[in-house]
Specification:
mainly alpha, 12 helices, 78% helix
């Protein structure tokens, strides 16, 4: 294969990543975005240790965190990330569950999955069976082109009895997409993704 065709194939790979993963990520995050508000994904112990409870309303930390959350909900991920990074700088030794979740999702949304890894790992270390954190890990791994690990993580989600339906749907999507991408079957990956959207 010539150097030109290798470079062209690389461009095609990146094009598929952009065209397929970003809409999938948006779909999965939109379907699961209420987790920040509802708190239904957390156990009672997690709720008691919630970062926002340690930093009361009216504190500078809390205000910046809330601004970042609002910006994320409005689809302004870059602006949200700037605010959230300031919060992390203020409390580098006290990055709680919600701040970990916010930082992980914002780094993925802004195309920085490698930076998301730290926060995703923290989430899973604290609660290895949290379906929302595992879903974020799947998205991160797909963006890092680590399809085998993405598939294994998606399989773990499907074995969790308490995983919400929208997250299980995302896991099925990731498994099929990863299988095609691993084998460099880009057209099949696109067809699979489009078919999944119709269903």
């Amino acid at each position: 294969m010539s150097k030109v065709s290798v470079e062209a194939q690389g461009m095609k790979n990146r094009s598929y990543i952009t065209c397929l993963l970003l809409p999938a990520l948006i779909l999965m995050l939109f379907a699961g975005c209420s987790f920040f508000k509802s708190g239904s994904h957390k156990s009672q112990a997690q709720t008691q240790d919630d970062w926002r409870l340690k930093h009361p309303r009216g504190s500078e930390y809390y205000a910046l965190f809330e601004e970042a959350m609002k910006l994320q909900e409005d689809g302004k991920s870059v602006e949200a990330l700037k605010k959230a990074e300031k919060v992390v700088q203020m409390v580098p030794d006290d990055i709680g569950h919600d701040l970990q979740m916010l930082m992980g999702s914002l780094y993925i949304n802004t195309g920085q999955p490698k930076k998301a890894e730290k926060y995703v790992n923290m989430l899973i270390e604290n609660n290895p069976d949290d379906p929302v954190a595992l879903d974020m890990k799947v998205n991160m791994l797909c963006n890092l082109l680590e399809y085998d690990e993405a598939k294994r993580t998606a399989e773990k989600i499907l074995k969790l009895p308490r995983a919400p339906k929208n997250i299980k749907l995302g896991a099925y999507l990731a498994m099929g997409y990863s299988a095609f991408m691993r084998e460099h079957k880009y057209d099949e990956a696109e067809k699979y993704f489009q078919g999944f959207q119709v269903v």
